[in-house]
Amino acid sequence: MSSEQDHLKDTDTEARFEFKKEERSAVKSGKGLTEEVVNLISDDKDEPDWMRERRLRALRQYHAMPLPTDWPGQPDLTELDIEEIVPYIRPDVDKREGVDDWDELPDDIKDTFEQLGIPEAERKALSGVGAQYESEVVYQNMQEQWEEKGVIFMNMDQAVKEHPEIVKEHFMTTCVPPSDNKFAALHGAVWSGGSFVYVPEDVTVEMPVQAYFRMNSEGMGQFEHTLIVAEPGSEVHYIEGCSAPKYGKHNLHSGGVEVFVKEGAHVQYSTVQNWSKNTYNLNTKRAIVEADGTMEWVSGSMGSKATMLYPCSILKGRGATDTHITIAFAGEGQNIDTGAKVYHNAPDTKSTIESKSISKDGGRTNYRGLVHIADGAENSSTAVECDALMFDNESTSDTMPYMEIEESKVDVAHEATVGKIGDEDIFYLQSRGLDDDDAKKMIVAGFIEPITEELPIEYAVELNRLIELEMEGSLG
Amino acid sequence: MSTQVHANLTPEQVREISGDLEEPEWMLETRLEALEALEELDMPDVIRTPGRNWTNLHGLDFESLVDPLNAAEEKDQVGPDDVDVLPWAEAIDEHEDLVREHFGSIVDPQENYLTALSTALFSTGTVIYVPEGVDAEDVTIRTEMHSRSLFNYTLVVTEDSSSVTILERQSTGTELDEEQYYSGIVEIAAGENSYVQYGSLQNLSEDSYCFSAKRGETDTYATINWIEGNIGTKLTKTETSTLLSGDSSETQIVGAFFGHDDQHFDIDAKVWHRAEHTTADLVTRGVTDDTARSVYEGVQDVGKDAWDTSSYQRENTLMLSDESEADASPKLIINNHDTEASHSATVGQIDAEDLLYMTSRGVSPRLARNMLVEGFFVPVLEEVAVDELREDLEDLIQARLE
Questions:
Q1: Between β-strands A27-28 and A89-90, what pairing exists: parallel, antiparallel or unpaired?
Q2: According to the 3-state scheme, what is the secondary structure of chain A?
């Protein structure tokens, strides 16, 4: 057995995410990226021609584009063989658009999501839930009170058919075009599943809507697309969670997220991702924010072998606001390369970025950020704060912010600190009767509090638990 | 792959330069190897973000800028008696072993296209040798440039428990109709427990280009403090860095720049922590006016064995004009967790309230602005321990404001 596989076994932390089910597939594509595979996906979904055309164009762009190779200190992608990835698996469920009654799900899928705590969260705290298994959404529900107000929450494949005008206008056109980068092009070719959220003018969805993505099959790629359109004056909070068990082969997750925040609208996008430690997580997430709109990104990146993810806001209208709160945790064998990008393209725009990272047992975290203030974006302000906590000397932590400032009437500040966990703090807590492990857990919990504060309680608890599990056993 | 193949440079030219300085064979070889490597070497790294090089060195026409056999300069190189401050040819004569040991040991001649060009073609330079236990103030190097291109090389070697303060100034003596190119490499080998202060003030004409690499390496308990002032040129690419390779060694890099018109400054301050208990402090302040552009890259790199590191970096840019641009990338690279490190960077304009306060007290807006700009530089100037350099810098800042 290779050392890689040994390592994957040894880092077992969490039975809850690690259970595997027999693969269930009605349709499974071949490996690799060919027109044949793309046509198979499009055929299987019975898509309109315009979507098929977009896929094929994206595929051509994918083949024409190079992999990113020359970024300073970027994660190693050489082991990622995209030609070996199975890009499409449709689980064999009866209803293609997903059932809206939990009991209609096949037992093993139901059991999967129940173990992950999805139905419970829905009953307690959410306006709607979508659950994706492999490449397709298998369960979708939206509380009636929101449907009556015209809020749409459905899976993306269904939206292509039922709301073609909105999708045609927004889907990978201005926000994340396939030409943006190689993985966006890949995503454009083989995307499947994901969420479509539409909030009409002046409607406030008071409870979060949630989507959960689960990869179960070995060597598959998951490429869900999320499109959120918030009309003027509306408000919505979308939460995404994801997980996959570990396998010997590498999995690839390459999602696409596009958010349109219209005038005065407010969108919060929260994600807690805990991909297995052999998953490459290479995403493109972007929001276009019109005048006086607000975009909030909250993300916790825990799992994956390598993550490259830089959620981006384009502040397009006067007075648009962006907030980024991110936390990254890299343990053994993990490289979490994440950050935030903000383009200030209009006057009076404002952004704040707060990034926290923890590295231990040889894990590697990098904050890679870009703040661009265009000429003419008067009275814009941005504040970036990065804090890195390192547990041991096998770990690495880098901070690479880039600031391009073309306008003088601005206020730009960047601050970063790196430090080890304080011996004195630990000593203090120990002298109050805590053991070493608990003292460290408590310090970490305090360190990440700014993030957990922004999440609904279930997610905050979840994030804390994940971090605790990451730390358990290997400390002290 | 280089984008600049220098067709008009020949080994014969290099032999002639080396012969004029009466260099030994090994040094000629180093030069010839650097010349030959040009074909393979690329420009120094500049910051790149997708779709953009922050400084475009490939846009410069080195083919026509470089005129190796017609170098002309006026140079003062003076120091106290107990220190050797020697022109290159004399240094070779008197201290060949010393030069051979250190030349090219800190800045690799073949690091990039511009270091190789400098190594192959330098025709002027200074070697400063401070013997054990000697405390020397006021070593002064003034270089006035009179030719199309000038390649300068400075080597500083301090023995155990010595100290030295070196002031280096570059200016243009004869302004030609064509653009001019100045290239300077500085290497400092700081011996155990020695203290080196190296101040540099670049005030070349605004029709010239400047490339400089100033790098030092510290032995145990040694200190290298840099002062880096940049006022002149159309385009400057400069790196000032210290490799902290001795336990408990220290460095400080203090920088000030002031760009106006269409000047472009690409300024790097870098420190490599490679030993235990090392300390670094990087402080840079700059102003951009008109359509000037500044690019700042600061790197604090903490190696795996650099236990108990302290590393701090601050960079502030003041923008006086809407058309100017100020880019910054302060990077932290941390491989040892027993580290206390922080960096901060800010970009902003003159505080409107401060301006209002001063004008309401009867100060004219122009004068008020100038006072605020001068005030902005104070925290950096305060760090400049050499009075003469501080005063020069203050004068140049004032002159620019007039």
A1: antiparallel
A2: CCHHHHHHHHCCCCHHHHCCCCCCCCEECCCCCCHHHHHHHHHHCCCCHHHHHHHHHHHHHHHHCCCCCCCCCCCCCCCCCHHHCECCEECCCCCCCCECCHHHCCHHHHHHHHHCCHHHHHHHHCCEEEEEECCEEEEEEECHHHHHCCCEEEEHHHHHHHCHHHHHHHCCCCCCCHHHCHHHHHHHHHCCCCEEEEECCCCECCCCEEEEEECCCCCEEECCEEEEEECCCCEEEEEEEEECCCCCCCEEECCEEEEEECCCCEEEEEEEEECCCCEEEECEEEEEECCCCEEEEEEEECCCCEEEECCEEEECCCCCEEEEEEEEEECCCCEEEECCEEEECCCCCEEEEEEEEEECCCCEEEEEEEEEECCCCCCEEEEEEEEEEECCCCCEEEEEEEEEECCCCEEEEEEEEEEECCHHHHHHHHHCCCCHHHHHHHHHHHHCHHHHCCCCHHHHHHHHHHHHHHHCCCCC
A422 in contact with B, Cβ within 8 Å? no
Average pLDDT over residues B25-49: 93
Interface test with B, best of A395, A405, A425, A475 (most B CBs within 10 A): A405
Q: Could you tell me the end-to-end alpha-carbon distance of chain A, in angstroms, rounded to an integer?
A: 29
Closest CA to B21 of B144, B123, B155: B123
- Do the Cβ atoms of A277 and A246 come closer than 8 Å? yes
CA–CA distance, B281 with A314 (Å, rounded to integer): 35
A4: which residues sit within 8 A by CB, 6+ positions away? A248
Cβ-based contacts of B334 with chain A (< 8 Å): 388, 390, 396-398, 418
Cα(first)–Cα(last) distance of chain B, in Å? 45
Query: For residue B117, what is the enclosing H or E element?
Result: helix B113-121
DSSP string over B237-274 = EEEEEEEE-STT-EEEEEEEEEE-TT-EEEEEEEEEE-
B151 by DSSP, 3-state: which?
A: strand
Q: B251 with B225: CB under 8 angstroms?
A: yes
A169: CB partners within 8 A, 6+ apart: none
* Substitution target from B284, B335, B337 for chain A, most A beta carbons within 10 A: B337
How many angstroms separate the CA atoms of A235 and A277, rounded? 35
Of A397, A410, A418, the CB nearest to B348: A410
Contact A388/B320, CB-based, under 8 Å? no
- Each residue of B40-50: pLDDT tens digit? 999 999 998 77
What mean pLDDT is predicted for residues A76-88?
85
Kindly report the pTM of this predicted structure: 0.87
Average pLDDT rounded to a whole number, residues A412-422: 84
B59, two tokens:
């846009």
Question: Between A and B, how many CB-CB pairs are < 8 A?
Answer: 109
Contact A419 B339 (CB under 8 A): yes
Distance of CA B315 to the CA centre of its chain: 16
- ipTM more than 0.90? no
Single out the residue of B188, B206, B152, B227 nearest to residue B388, CA to CA: B227
Give residue A427's pLDDT: 77
Locus of tokens 């280009």: B209
Task: Give how far A381 is from chain B: nearest CA, Å.
Answer: 9
CB-CB neighbors (< 8 A) of B336 in chain A: 393
CB neighbours of residue B139 within 10 Å: 23
Residue numbers in B near A419 (CB within 8 A): 339-341
Q: What is the mean pLDDT of chain A?
A: 84
| Nearest Cα residue to A303 out of A270, A325, A281, A271 | A281
User: And the tokens for A198?
Assistant: 């539409």
Average pLDDT value for residue range B334-347: 92
Q: Does A410 touch chain B (CB under 8 A)?
A: yes
